[in-house]
């Protein structure tokens, strides 16, 4: 399975790219209008991309999505509804990647864990950006 979309009540909460996923050519999985774009780059040997840069453009972002790619270890990612009820736990290992699109989430480290984490910026610190939610 290339991409697993995790939905609940018609709302997209997360998307997972499992470690074994292979694509023949570059494939972006996120919707074009999403504020966070992700995919897999794939090219045959010998491919050369032209030197380039990306145009600056003012964008208004009202959500904050997070992606992490597990480098080592095992982690359970717990997803909760807006009503604070758990509805899905995903066990991720090395090479697995998840985009947290919406809602409340938590992690539980099963084996010593390290991941590359990417979020939109700027980052204003945990005090301003992170909202701790009591479990129901």
Number of helices: 1
Rg computed from alpha carbons, rounded to a whole number of angstroms: 16 Å
H-E order? EEEEEEEEH
CATH architecture: Sandwich
CATH topology: Jelly Rolls
Strand percentage, roughly? 35-45%
* Contiguous uncertain segments of 5+ residues: none
What is the number of beta strands? 8
Instruction: Describe the sheet with the most strands.
Output: 6 strands, antiparallel
Category from helices, strands and their pairing: mainly beta
Helix amount, in percent?
A: under 10%
Instruction: Report the mean per-residue pLDDT as an integer.
Output: 90
Please, how many domains?
1
Separation of the first and last Cα atoms? 33 Å
Name of the CATH class: Mainly Beta
Gross morphology is globular
Q: Any overview of this molecule?
A:
The protein is mainly beta and 136 residues long. 3% of the residues lie in helices and 43% in strands. The chain has one domain (4-43, 63-121): Sandwich (Jelly Rolls), CATH 2.60.120. It is built from 1 helix and 8 strands; from the N terminus they run E-E-E-E-E-E-E-E-H. Strands 1, 2, 5, 6, 7 and 8 form a 6-stranded antiparallel beta sheet that branches. Strands 3-4 form a two-stranded antiparallel sheet. The chain is globular. The relative contact order is 0.24.
Furnish the topology, listing elements before pairings.
Layout: E1 4-8, E2 11-17, E3 27-28, E4 39-40, E5 66-80, E6 86-92, E7 97-100, E8 104-119, H1 126-129
Antiparallel strand pairs: 1-2, 2-7, 3-4, 5-6, 5-7, 5-8
């Amino acid at each position: 399975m290339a991409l697993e979309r995790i939905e609940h009540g018609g709302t997209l909460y997360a998307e997972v790219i499992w470690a074994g996923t292979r694509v023949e050519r570059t494939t972006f999985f996120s919707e074009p209008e999403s504020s966070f774009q992700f995919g897999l780059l794939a090219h045959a040997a010998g491919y050369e991309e032209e030197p380039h840069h990306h145009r600056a453009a003012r964008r208004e972002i009202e959500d904050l999505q997070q992606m992490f790619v597990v480098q080592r270890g095992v982690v359970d990612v717990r997803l909760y509804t807006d009503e604070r009820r758990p509805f899905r736990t995903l066990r991720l290992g090395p090479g697995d990647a998840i985009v947290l699109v919406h809602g409340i989430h938590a992690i539980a480290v099963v084996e010593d864990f390290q991941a590359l984490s990417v979020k939109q910026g700027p980052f204003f610190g945990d005090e301003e950006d992170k909202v701790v939610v009591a479990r129901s």
